[in-house]
Design brief:
252 residues, globular, alpha/beta, 7 strands, Rossmann fold, 7 helices, 7-stranded parallel β-sheet, 41% helix
Length: 252
């Protein structure tokens, strides 16, 4: 399998941590993100660690742009070994008033974008001996707050899409898994002019059995594991990385 990783939404937050984690593991990395300045920053960071990296500024909901990005990456790096579908947005609002166009936009980026990227990347993976796809879902696929219908629907769809793709693509040597982050603090992983130190109180920490809020590095580590040979017998799974928050009962 080619040691090449593609990451959507790789310019900021969890995606930035994922991109740099793959660089540190010796992968050539290609990221897709609509924020040009943030994307170029990641490329500079990757190259400062002697990593090989490219960036394409585009929207994951643009099918033609996605196809060009994946083809460009395969041509430049000689193939595709791993894809991390991380790009995601949220548009909140009461289900009584949420505009259908807003619902459609969330689905287009989060769920449809995950499918299109997986489809395009899998076509290259099948020609080079297989690969690994990791989809970033969310604990919102399992639990909700009010006004999160569009986001929850998209992430629940990603979990279902993951096991469907795992079954369909398994015969082609492609494993497909999901990671569902819980509360992950991304304040320090934004574009440099937006990054800031987070502030959490004791109550925030105690919501998690591990005693702290999650970091992007926690999710990046899970992605590197699932993409690599150590997870060679793992497919169709949804790995919840939330410090135990979803299994702790809280009475107020």
């Amino acid at each position: 399998m080619k040691k090449t990783a593609l990451i959507t939404g790789g310019a900021q937050g969890i995606g930035r941590a994922i991109a740099l984690a793959f660089v540190q593991q010796g992968y050539a990395v290609s990221i897709l993100d609509p924020d040009r300045d943030a994307g170029l920053e990641v490329i500079r960071l990757a190259r400062s660690e002697n990593g090989q990296a490219i960036f394409v500024c585009a929207d994951v909901a643009d099918d033609e742009a996605v196809a060009r990005w994946i083809r460009l990456t395969a041509d430049d790096f000689g193939g595709i070994g791993a894809l991390v579908n991380n790009a995601g947005i949220g548009i909140g609002g009461s289900p009584l008033t949420l505009a259908p166009a807003d619902f459609d936009r969330v689905i287009a980026v989060n769920l449809r974008g995950t499918f299109i990227c997986s489809q395009q990347a899998a076509r290259f993976m099948t020609a080079t001996g297989g690969g690994s796809i990791v989809n970033i879902a969310s604990t919102r696929a399992l639990m909700s707050e009010p006004g999160s219908e569009a986001y929850a629907a998209s992430k629940g769809g990603i979990v279902a899409l993951t096991h469907a793709l795992a079954v369909s693509l398994g015969p082609h040597g492609i494993r497909v898994n999901a990671v569902s982050p819980g509360w992950i603090e991304t304040a320090e992983w934004q574009r440099s002019d937006r990054a800031h130190a987070p502030q959490h109180n004791e109550r925030d920490r105690l919501q998690h059995p591990v005693g702290r809020v999650g970091t992007p590095e926690d999710i990046a580590a899970a992605c590197v594991y699932l993409a690599g040979p150590a997870a060679g017998f793992v497919t169709g799974q949804n790995l919840v990385v939330d410090g135990g928050m979803t299994i702790k009962m809280i009475y107020e």
